[in-house]
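Lab notebook: predicted structure, single chain.

Context: the supervisor wants predicted structures on file for every construct in the current expression panel, including those that have not yet been purified. This is the next one on the list. No modifications to the sequence; it matches the entry in the shared construct table.
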Amino acid sequence: MDLLIGEYRNTLDEKGRILFPAKLRGILQKNELIVTKGLDHCLMLFTSEEWASLSEKIMKKSSPFNDQTNKVIRRFIAPAQQLEFDRSGRLSIPQCLREYASLSGESVILGLNRYMELWDSKCYDEYLSSTEADFKDAAGSMSDIFL
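Prediction complete. Output recorded below exactly as produced.
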């Protein structure tokens, strides 16, 4: 599978549907995505294959008696939903996930190689502004990858 890359801005309609970029849909092997709550109040979108691999790894490292792993399972695995594209190439984002990510109009889809993120446009722009200095430090800490 090709890499899921790019930044795409689109509008969430009044029914909670977002038209997914044809370029990204063309890469997908199935007409569905797994959508769950991500960090920083965005949604994370996975192909079913990528989700199966990731969720299996998480569950193998988890125990119902471990408070730390339960936090990840309850906030990441539990809210995940399998969504199918409609004939027009739209995904209908469930209300509980829209509320979590404050989605209500202009949105941003980010392709991050193996998965994607869906942000409210205003929240994403605020995130970029508020993390600019941190980004420079984080990028500096990874300078050895260019060797």
